[in-house]
Amino acid sequence: GFKSEGENLAALPVPALELGGSAVKLDADTHAYEVLGDIGGLQGTDADAAIPVGALRGYDVVFDYPAAKFTLAKSGGRHTGTSVPVQIGASGMPTVTVQIDGKPYGFLLDTGGSCVMLSDTVMAPMAYAHQDWGSLDGAYGRGDMLLGAKFETRLKMLDIATLGWGPFQLQHVIAVSRPGGIYETNMSKIAGAPVVGSLGGNVIQSGNP
User: Fold this and answer.
1) Which of 17, 49, 110, 199 is most buried, most CB within 10 Å of its CB?
2) Of the ranges 3-17, 126-140, 166-180, 190-204, which one carries the lowest mean pLDDT score?
3) Residue 48: is it exposed, middle or buried by C-beta count within 10 angstroms (0-12/13-18/19+)?
4) Cα 133 from chain centre
5) Given a cut of 90, is residue 75 above it in pLDDT?
6) Residue 118, SS3?
7) Cα–Cα distances in Å, from 73 out to 69, 106, 163?
8) Whole-angstrom Cα distance, residue 125 to residue 180?
9) Host H or E run for residue 202
10) pLDDT tens by residue, 21-69
11) Is the whole-model pTM more than 0.85?
12) Neighbours of 132 (CB within 10 A)
């Protein structure tokens, strides 16, 4: 066994994987690990396992939030909708550029997060410049992603009036803060592109910004 990111891990044979009754052909570079001593869900969630994005490189992956569907299809299929430029680095993390107040900002596209997250280094001056935008001390609703952890009482929430993403102008986008440097330093290095936050489910789910 070995330790990574605070977890004790042990290598496992890569298991056979099926989704919806169909076999999933995993990427040849896929590895499997067991989290030792973990009781209950993975990393405090209700999930039993995690599938890395790199393992699904051979598929078109569709997250349909309004329909609550997750689809894997052979790569190269035709899709409806409007394309938005995206960069995917070596880590497999997709990054996009959004516009707020006419300024471009790099964001991760986080299909697992329930709320937009934004570095306090960016949010604090933004909230000061727009005191007409709604704001809160603490994380609530979709922004409460750690289920009431003490850490979240120190966070802020901001109602961004308009966020531009490609041709879309999203109104009243709720964002929750994260300590400065987490995105600018750590996540930017992992993603391979400069980011100051992440776009979560509240902008991906149509009609519920």
Assistant:
1) 199
2) 3-17
3) exposed
4) 24
5) no
6) strand
7) 13, 28, 31
8) 12
9) helix 201-204
10) 888 888 778 889 888 876 667 766 778 888 877 778 788 888 888 888 8
11) no
12) 7
Number of neighbours of residue 44 by Cβ within 10 angstroms: 11
Strand partners, 136: 157
Q: How many CB atoms lie within 10 A of CB 140?
A: 15
- Report the alpha-carbon distance of residue 159 to residue 143 in Å, rounded: 12
Average pLDDT over residues 127-139: 95
SS3 call for 141? helix
Question: Look-up: residue for tokens 């994987």?
Answer: 17
What is each CA distance from 148 to 123, 142, 143, 162, 163, in whole angstroms?
21, 11, 10, 28, 27
DSSP labels for 180-195?
Answer: TTIIIIIIHHHHTS--
Torsion-angle region of 101 (φ positive above 0: left; ψ -120 to 50: alpha; else: beta): left
DSSP string, 31-97: -EEEETT--SSGGGSS-S----GGGGTTEEEEEETTTTEEEEEETT----S-----EE-TT--EEEE
pLDDT in tens, 154-188: 899 999 999 999 999 999 999 999 999 999 999 99
Q: Look up tokens 């993390």; give the residue.
A: 93
